[in-house]
Specification:
Blueprint: H1 18-41, H2 50-53, E1 92-96, E2 100-105, E3 110-120, E4 126-128, H3 132-138, E5 143-145, H4 149-155, E6 161-162, E7 166-169, E8 172-179, E9 183-191, E10 196-205, E11 208-210, E12 213-216, H5 226-230, E13 233-238, E14 241-246, E15 255-257, E16 262-266, E17 270-276, E18 282-294, E19 306-318, E20 323-331, H6 334-337, H7 359-375, H8 380-411, H9 413-422, H10 433-446, H11 456-471, H12 497-512, H13 520-539, H14 543-564, H15 567-582, E21 588-590, E22 593-595
Parallel strand pairs: 1-7
Antiparallel strand pairs: 1-2, 2-3, 3-4, 5-12, 6-8, 8-9, 9-10, 10-11, 10-20, 12-19, 13-14, 13-16, 15-18, 16-17, 17-20, 18-19, 21-22
């Protein structure tokens, strides 16, 4: 195979690979530390109440033809204590405002449809946030959860009497009541102009309150990919400190007692979160089930048959038995979440939007995108392009510093080669090689050469890249955001145009950027490995990341091309060519041409 050479670094010296090694070590260290951080900050859910945690998850509802019966926790029939209140037929109540359209059934007084008007599903229809398949199997939103499976089944199949039927405009309140002589259940829901509603739920047995929770049994209506299920999590906030627990660490049926500022379940874009009126006595039950989904439904799998995917849910209540809580069901949009307050006004839902280990940088990047989108161009794709230009303009002085550092390295390279020649016969394990390293370091210090100078731009860009990796798939604003041929900047490029551009531009970045002191073989390896690595990441990842990365590469190539034509760039190439000519039989490559002695 013909030898590959960087036109800015002909005949680079062997052995001085500190910059490359440091860069790779930093990359590996960041990945390992991120995994450690994730493990430490996402502990498995504990079970503080062993008796309650053993309670099985209750089924969704009774069959349509089953009449609710009085069920005693002890198994014995209970004496009638309250007048019966039972509806004779199933009815619906629709509550609507500018943001949602919620359909209740009086059977179980639970939600059968929850349309979020500002969002579309994958077929372009208004998004129903209720996961219909999951609801039929495990329960509908705002159903009841008790620690008696039979009672839960009967209550969620009971025919409640609604205070209002048909279509009702918000703000309003709707009360559902059911009684069968022994048990009485009352569910009152109050609505305003926001995504919030308030629930006041109580179940009594012969006048004594029973510990009853209000449930969002699992899933959201926008789930169409395996990762949609795998990225669902349980979110909690205790005394202002939030936790995000991945599905692998959630045990179904576990009960956790408060205090809870808020608790619920969310996927990357939407959440169903309970904000108890009394945080100190709040309690939640975690629900973890498996659901079979047709492979044809999952956009990334067009095979036949079904696949099991995880399904998380949460039920929230109060130790007193009576549940009083606000409920937020809507997008995980920063400008909305920061205005949703818990019982403690200082606590908001803003931490629900979690960008991972580099979350602080991710939020800064997102707010920058948001500012550009609001004040410069109302398109998220162009916002990414503009922010990328701004980032590269900021780090341009560092690129120049890097080139200056490379030039200094070239100037002292003959002296470094002479030092290495003194110790060339020593084995790698010989302690005297430490003397060689000490001499080289002393020379670099004396000449003002920073051995890490070539890594600075990369070390700065890596956190930005990881921040984009963590931020882009969780920003609901980029969900279904268009840019030229891209219909969704949070999804992969369907035609793989950007990943291919990414591979080509990454190769050119490696090819045109001077790398003083790097082993030519390793330089050649990196010239192919880095494009392959970046192409692999962006092939199936959010196209917004590929757009940021590819545009950044194109800007970097243009900047480097200009710098290569400055006095600094010319001197760097001349020194490199001069060193190459010293090596008999080796060609020197300048500006794409081969010069021989």
């Amino acid at each position: 195979m013909a030898e590959f050479k960087n036109p800015n670094q002909p005949g680079a010296p062997q052995g001085n690979n500190q910059s490359l090694i440091v860069m790779m070590l930093v990359l590996v260290s960041v990945f390992f530390f991120a995994q450690y951080w994730k493990t430490k900050h996402n502990p498995p859910l504990a079970n503080p109440n062993a008796t309650q945690s053993q309670a099985a998850s209750a089924p969704a509802s009774a069959p349509a033809d089953s009449a609710p019966q009085a069920v005693s926790l002890s198994g014995a029939p209970a004496a009638a204590a309250v007048p019966a209140v039972v509806a004779t037929a199933e009815t619906t109540t629709i509550v609507e405002n500018e943001l949602y359209r919620i359909t209740f059934s009086n059977k179980g007084a639970q939600v059968t449809s929850w349309i979020l008007k500002a969002y579309k599903d994958n077929n372009g229809k208004p998004l129903d946030i209720v996961h219909s398949d999951a609801a039929r199997q495990f329960g509908y939103p705002l159903s009841l959860y008790t620690y008696d499976a039979g009672l839960t089944k009967n209550l969620n199949g009971a025919m409640f009497v609604a205070s209002a039927t048909g279509q009702v405009a918000s703000p309003t309140s709707v009360t559902f009541t059911y009684a069968n002589g022994e048990y009485k259940a009352t569910k009152t829901f109050s609505f305003d102009e926001t995504y919030l509603l308030h629930a006041d739920v109580e179940v009594t047995r012969n006048g004594t309150p029973l510990r009853t929770l209000v449930a969002w049994p699992g899933g959201f209506g926008d789930m169409s990919k395996p990762q949609d299920y795998a990225t669902t999590q349980i979110d909690t906030s205790t005394n202002g400190k939030e936790e995000h627990i991945a599905f692998k660490k959630v045990s179904g049926g576990d009960t956790l007692n408060g205090p809870f500022d808020w608790a619920g379940v969310s996927d990357p874009y939407f959440g169903a979160i309970f904000l108890p009126d009394n945080a100190q006595s709040a309690t939640i039950a975690t629900l973890h089930n498996q659901i079979k989904v047709d492979k044809a439904v999952l956009k990334s799998d067009q095979g036949k048959g079904t696949v099991d995917v995880p399904l998380l849910g949460v039920a929230a209540g109060d130790l007193s038995g009576r549940t009083q809580t606000k409920i937020y069901v809507g997008p995980k949009a920063a400008n909305i979440l920061k205005n949703i307050h818990a019982a403690n006004p200082a606590v908001t839902l803003e931490p629900l939007l979690d960008f991972g280990f580099f979350g602080i940088i991710g939020k800064l990047l997102f707010y920058s995108l948001q500012f550009v989108h609001a004040h410069i161009v109302a398109n998220w794709g162009w916002s990414i392009v503009i922010v990328t230009f701004a980032i590269n303009a900021i780090i341009l002085p560092l690129r120049i510093k890097t080139m200056q550092s490379g030039l200094k390295m070239q100037r002292i390279q003959p002296q470094m080669d002479a030092i290495k020649a003194k110790y060339k016969n020593l084995k790698v394990t010989d302690p005297k090689r430490n003397e060689m390293n000490a001499e080289i370091m002393e020379l670099q210090k004396r000449e003002g050469v920073n051995m890490f100078g070539g890594c600075i731009p990369t070390l700065i860009q890596l956190p930005l890249l990881f921040a984009f990796l963590g931020m882009l798939p969780k920003v609901v604003e980029l969900r279904q955001a268009h840019w030229f041929w891209l219909n969704d900047l949070s999804a992969a490029d369907p035609y793989h145009i950007l990943p291919i551009l990414m591979i080509v531009s990454q190769f050119l970045v490696q090819f045109y950027t001077p790398s003083p002191g790097v082993d030519p073989q390793q330089q050649k390896m990196m010239a192919f490995m880095m494009p392959a690595f970046s192409g692999y990441i962006t092939w199936t990842y959010a196209s917004g990341l590929a757009l940021y990365w590819a545009v950044g590469n194109l800007i970097g190539i243009a900047q480097q091309a200009v710098m290569n034509r400055t006095a600094l760039g010319r001197e760097t190439r001349e020194l490199a060519a001069k060193r190459a000519r010293r090596k008999a039989g080796q060609p020197a490559v300048i500006q794409g041409k081969t010069n021989r002695r």
